[in-house]
Amino acid sequence: MMLSASYDREVSGCSERHMRRVVSGNVQCLQRMCLQRKLEAHAGCVNTVSFDTEGGDVLISGSDDQQILLWDWQTGRVRLRFDSGHANNVFQARMLPHSSGSRLITCTADGQVRLVNLPEGAGSLSVSRTLLGEHVGR
Q1: Taking Cα atoms as reference points, which of 74, 21, 17 lies closest to residue 51?
Q2: What number is the average pLDDT over the span 91-116?
Q3: Please, what is the Cα angle at 3 between 11 and 36, to 5 degrees?
Q4: Which terminus of the chain has fewer Cβ atoms in its 10 Å neighbourhood, N or C?
Q5: What Cα–Cα distance (Å) separates residue 88 from each residue in 5, 8, 52, 73, 92?
Q6: What is the distance between the alpha carbons of residues 23 and 36, in angstroms, rounded to a whole number?
């Protein structure tokens, strides 16, 4: 079933949601998975990991150390590290679709949601963060 779903995804364009459901529910697929590499650069517990929405070559991680890291997952190297601007543990960090890899949304235990702009080819000094909203309590 998984091979069929994989083929359908590539040829007929079945939805990403359907593909996730088929793969995540497939015991044989999960049993064949193995560790590709260990990515070690955070100073705290990693709470969120996601791939960029367009190329799939950037892995985004956020941690209790309040840092956001963008990784080249194939080489295991950190492409960019920056302070989230939050006052507590990072629980989510996701690339916005259709942003050409230049915008992230983050949220943390401080109750804030922030938009992060990552100018192309720029270092961490040019990362800008905008507070979009906040809530009280978890």
Answers
A1: 74
A2: 91
A3: 105
A4: C
A5: 40, 42, 23, 26, 12
A6: 18
